Amino acid sequence: MRFIVLGDMHYNVPTGPGLKTSRDIFFGGLFEQIAARTPDLVFAIGDTTDTGIIAELNSQTALAQRFGINLVRLMGNHDSDTLEKSEIAPFFLGDHQPVNEDAVYACFDSDATRFIMLDTTRSRSPDNWSGVVPDSELAWLADRIEEYNRTTSLRHLVVMGHHPLTNTTDRSDIEWLNIDNSEEVRAIFNKLTRTPGLYINGHNHTNSLAGPDAYGWHYAQMGAPLACRSYGMFDIDENGIRFETVDIDLGDPEFNKAYVTTRISMGDVFNYYPFEVMYGGSNDHRMEIPASKPVS
Ligand SMILES: [Fe+2]
Ligand SMILES: [Fe+2]
User: Fold this and answer.
1) Which of 156, 159, 241, 261 has the fewest other C-beta atoms within 10 Å?
2) CATH: 3.60.21.10, 3.90.1170.40, 3.40.50.150, 3.90.180.10. Which one for 2-290?
3) For 195-234, what is each residue's pLDDT tens digit?
4) Ligand 2 center–CA 121 separation, angstroms
């Protein structure tokens, strides 16, 4: 199977002249290029929108669906900035129901792969954009991993969340660019006996890969498409998971112009670092994760 993961899109409802047209051309073209890769699933790893208002979510849903893509969104700190999570929950997790009303997380199995979609965000907290995983979610995560350990038919474990664990991928050592209680999450990750495991995150906007760590976990950070001109593609077969960064084809002049206009409209903070820094180095674009050990 193939799945694609989009980093922080920060899709917004622009007010400046021509910006809506540019946004639609850029994101529409991006969705079209992704659809051409014929993925089975397309995830958006949070900060899917810029402010999480219904107008952004509706507009993005319609644009993606125009190209045959049903986005499976995870919650990002920007998505949960404005409204209560319960108000926007219907736009998240695809067809999967959140485990409870307070946090938007879920788990599902597809063939031999278990996907765990975490919610690492605070609610309506624009002044603190760090991540956190509450105790109830940690307990649920531990149960899902223990279950994985003993389920013979499952061979690949993919956990996703918006924020990185501290001291894994690029910039995850910086305050608020990680999950505050990363050590508690790591303690749960370490319950995985059938290694390896894969954790995918966004938030820091740069492409970055790390691991495997001492406990058999690999880490893949998806760069923001507008900053890195790329998205992540994962192919799974019986041997394991193959990851590669796919560069967005900006060869069409009109599409490239819409890309540049949309990127610049995001402002100075979003565009603070040059492309070369955001895109990552030669070790940040390819990774192979073997299948998990069989149940013994
Ligand atoms: Fe972001
Ligand atoms: Fe974020």
Assistant:
1) 261
2) 3.60.21.10
3) 999 999 999 999 999 999 999 999 999 999 999 999 999 9
4) 9
For residue 81, the ligand closest to its alpha carbon is 2
* Token couple for 209: 């890969």
Q: How far apart are CA 106 and CA 115, in angstroms?
A: 8
The continuous run of DSSP H or E covering 186 comes out as helix 182-189
Q: How far is the CA of 103 from the centre of ligand 1 (A)?
A: 19
Q: Distance, CA 202 to ligand 2 centroid (Å)?
A: 7
- By three-state DSSP, how is residue 246 classified? strand
Taken in order 51, 55, 59, 60, is the CA torsion positive or negative?
Answer: positive
Global confidence as pTM:
0.98
CA–centroid distance, residue 294 to ligand 1 (Å): 37
Give all strands of the β-sheet with 240-247 in edge-to-edge order: 72-73, 41-44, 2-6, 230-237, 240-247, 286-290
Q: Ligand 1: distance of its center to the CA of 229 in Å?
A: 15
Q: Which ligand is nearest to the CA of 177?
A: 2
- CA–CA separation, 124 and 38 (whole Å): 35
CB 123 within 8 A of CB 84: yes
pLDDT band with cut points at 50, 70 and 90 for residue 100: confident
Token digits of residue 84: 């209560």
* Ligand sitting nearest the alpha carbon of 224: 1
Domain boundaries, the chain: 2-290
Closest ligand relative to 163 C-alpha: 2
Which single residue is written with the structure tokens 């061979």? Answer: 155
Which residues sit opposite 217 in a β-bridge?
Answer: 197
Q: How far is the CA of 105 from the centre of ligand 2 (A)?
A: 16
pLDDT number for residue 296: 82
Q: 59 alpha carbon to ligand 2 midpoint, in Å?
A: 20
Q: Which residues pair with 75 in a beta bridge?
A: none
